[in-house]
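Lecture 7 notes: from sequence to structure.
We start with the chain below.
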Amino acid sequence: MNQKYQVVIQPVARKAIEEAYFWLSNYSPKNARTWLEGLYKAILSLGNMPLRCSLAFENNFFDEEIRQLVYGKGRNAYRILFTIVDDTVQIIFVRHAAQKPMIDESDDE
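Predicted structure tokens for the same chain:
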């Protein structure tokens, strides 16, 4: 049985996508548009079989399970970080592969 999941992009992830798009568009508007369309296609693919994606490094630092889908290759790779809650895939962040991993700093207090 092939379960379908609803995909929801959280505001912080949407903001990160917009920032990456605007940064790329400064260098090549055409490539930026292609990148954005491909990124959204990759995100929407998580509606089918999101468990195919590996656990993210960040999974070790948060209570909920965090998975990742890598979009792009080499220097152009971005990690789509997400959680699965019931029948919903929550996109929590999109980060360039060269960025440091996110960690939960709430425990540092």
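Points to note: Helices lie at 11-27, 29-44. The first strand starts at residue 6 and ends at 9.
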